[in-house]
Amino acid sequence: MARFEFMEDTIAAISTCSAANAGISIVRMSGEEAVSIAEKLFVPAKSGLVLSEVNSHTIHYGKFVFENQEIDEVLISVMRAPNTYTREDLVEVNCHGGVLVTRKILDALIQSGARVAEPGEFTKRAFLNGRLDLSQAEAVIDLIDAKNEYALKASVDQLDGHLSRELKVMRDELLNHTAFIEAALDDPEHMSLDGYTEKLALDVDKYVDNLDKLLKTSENGRIIKEGINTCILGKTNAGKSSLLNILAHAERAIVTDIAGTTRDVLEESVTVGGIQLNLIDTAGIRKTDDVVENIGVNRAKEMAGKADLIIYVVDSTRALDENDEEILRLIQDKKVIVVLNKADLTPVIGKDEIRKAINAPVITTSAKDYTGIGDLEEAVKELFFAGQIEMNDQIYITNARHKNLLLDARKSLKLVKDGIENGMTEDFLTIDLFDAYEKLGNILGEAVEDDLAGRIFARFCMGK
Prior knowledge:
It is built from 16 helices and 13 strands. By secondary structure, it is an alpha/beta fold. The chain folds into three domains: 11-132, Probable tRNA modification gtpase trme, domain 1 (Gyrase A, domain 2, 2-Layer Sandwich), CATH 3.30.1360; 138-217 and 397-444, tRNA modification GTPase MnmE domain 2 (Four Helix Bundle (Hemerythrin (Met), subunit A)), CATH 1.20.120.430; 224-385, 3-Layer(aba) Sandwich (Rossmann fold), CATH 3.40.50.300. The strands form two sheets. A seven-stranded mixed beta sheet has the order 3-4-5-6-2-1-7. It has a six-stranded mixed beta sheet with strand order 9-10-8-11-12-13, with helices on both faces. α4 runs antiparallel to α5 (149-159), α6 (162-186) packs antiparallel against α15 and α7 (196-216) packs antiparallel against α14. The longest helix is centred in the middle third of the chain and has 25 residues, at 162-186. The protein is flat.
């Protein structure tokens, strides 16, 4: 497994929140000198205790002292390599969670021989030391950034190695095919390739099918990770802003009886049925001579064109008119859920009339009475995930880098299949076999370039 030039110094960082006071804070160190640096600053409560002599994975109470000044009462955890997150000696100083005291402890560690860790450097060392492959390391930051339960579950599954195991099995088989062909070409007297391409073709079909299954999850994977970009669209005073406020559980948008109150887009991320919706409340679509409102209407149309989902809010007490006709033309080819609002009042139009105008799910709500929101949740899940997200055994591709490499590997395997069908010699087939092997390996971090790894780990927070 390819690894980068490794820095053997000891790193330190605050691993908990460093911007506000908290109950406790943790300052973490990793490296060969982690225990000896901590030993210089730790005065144990237990007489005769020597930090460098304690058993691994033990925790000890005492005082943290620097330049004869007591900084805090602390608990110090000592974890010895290789059974640690980084596979190096790891020390964690658990102190009271004041910003000042936490910073003073970190400063003391730095002045005693450690250096400040770069963003993501603890996880980078875990990767460099073979504790995690690159796809698992990327799952760590996805886990930290997860904004809904499905993104969290997908990240945990990837961190557990679900994707890694599947790719490793495929890579082993690709390497075995390549090695056998090359060995047979070198020693034709003892190894025969007669009929081998037929077997290889069957296996390549299987690999392409496996990659297709993974790639089919990538769009749902993107939505699970990033959320559904959702545009709330409708005429003025249909209840768009009221719906946003209900979903956000806060008065995020101004609601009045005056038509044209919303003049610009308003964005809010909410969780609906465990799925993140990146909501965009827009100006009501209508013809207007107001210059400012007209800018808002044009922005609403632009946002609708970019959205994954349109929530078309219709006032059930008003008949469809030319403004609705314009909206319907705008959203005909989009994923749409129609919200027939103001169910608490006497309706003028119903679901059947809406369904004649557009082929989309229609739900009835009352923003005033907070009814119908559960139906909206179910409609979103049905529209995007056929009613449910299979999170038990399903691997979801949530990373664009992984998707692109899977596409590259699939392309190489298709070249192998084309080569077999066109009667190309086996030595040419090994070129594309090995290329597919390498592309899958790049997902796991095999022979990945330093600058790519640097960009990946730069996304991490300090202390992770």
